[in-house]
Amino acid sequence: MATATPGGVGCGNGTLDPGEECDDGNTADGDGCSSQCRSELIPGTRHRFGKRECFHEWLAPPVLAVDAHGLPSNRLDCTDDDPTCDHGAAAGDEACTFHVALCFNVVDTRRIDVHTGAPMCMPSDVERLYLMTRSRFANQDSPDATDEANRDALDAALAGIGAVERGECTRDDSTAPRLCSVDAECDTSPGSGDGTCRGRLLAFVPPLVDQGVCTGFADVVVPLTRVGVVLQRGEKWIRLRTMPEHDPVTGECRAGDTDFLRLYCDPQP
Prior knowledge:
Layout: E1 56-59, E2 75-79, E3 95-104, E4 126-134, H1 145-159, E5 164-169, E6 179-180, E7 197-208, E8 213-214, E9 218-223, E10 225-227, E11 230-232, E12 234-244, E13 257-266
Parallel strand pairs: 2-13
Antiparallel strand pairs: 1-3, 3-8, 3-9, 4-7, 4-12, 5-6, 5-7, 10-11, 12-13
């Protein structure tokens, strides 16, 4: 059987032809599907592509490196003031500004189940998002001002596709933690005053079931590290845990997808 050559006739026609990983109807780079009809989405897993990987994937163009499995790497390296990857408005700001979007319920054909011939991962009903931004992720007690600004930028991007800030009930008799906005929503009986709503997460209410939904780009800033008068590499990590709705029958938590994005900014040589 003849197969279409990526980037040749058929690529950009909006139809997924043989040999293509994606086809969004154009031949532009940086929108999730490249001019060669290769997916630019970053799975973000630290392990092999799994059955829940497509619940969420990152988009952070340009794709500069691939991982050991041939997928866009979740490690992005940029040099300060390099216009191909540093989207900051000011030169000499001693920081790299990455454009990061978040995509949910991706129809990802890059990994196929050998038994069924279908994509290994199928979209789900995404409900809860647990987002963390840190300098090194580990060995740090609290985020700094840049981490907070990055978190706010990502929160705003998620709000643009309908995510709302919520907490979880921590003192009630439900099988699974309930989403809440105030303590009263967690009362064991109306007006009892014994409810506790805690935490900070983003949620889709109702759960997001649409396929291929991406946020707009958020500006994520990675400052260089200054040691005396010497500028050194800066580093930021983003962690997102994407959870489907709890089992509607048992109320039990269903397994989700945890993704990392590692961003590095190097000084000019």
